[in-house]
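ARCHIVE RECORD
Type: protein–small molecule complex
Small molecule: D-ribose
Source of inputs: curated submission
Record status: active
Notes field left blank by submitter.
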Amino acid sequence: MRIAIASDHGGFYLKGDLALFLEEMGYSCHDLGPHNADAVDYPDYARKVATAVAEGLYHVGILVCGTGQGMAMTANKVKGIRAAVCQDTYSARMSREHNDANVLCLGARVVGPGLAADIVKTWLEAEFSGEQRHSRRVAMIQAPEGK
Ligand code: RB5
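STRUCTURE (tokenized, with ligand):
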């Protein structure tokens, strides 16, 4: 599974921890920046990852900012993206099983590195259930985007 990861300054250090964790778990993880902790605008990085996932360059994306919220709001403007803010493992699993999320957003000021790693692992190991009612609802999410 190919994974794109990015952050803003608020998520920079957690991004580094998670990139290492992903490599250790055997995933192919591409860090799309930033590459230092200087202040940046999270929409630039959210759009980078979301666009690359929507174009099929990566299977999924992971975005880290202070809260995860601005990353998700931006990523969800990109056609085909279903970005979920998950600060617990239950939401992480459900966002995959029920909502077929393709981008995970985390808040480095909300969760510590240990919980963040558990959330990422849970999210990556969960799969969309494919049940008819969930497929129908996911199609309803995407409907305003058109074909
Ligand atoms: C940056 O201070 C902060 O606003 C950002 O990391 C994020 O929490 C936005 O949603």
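CURATOR ANNOTATION: The longest strand covers residues 2-7.
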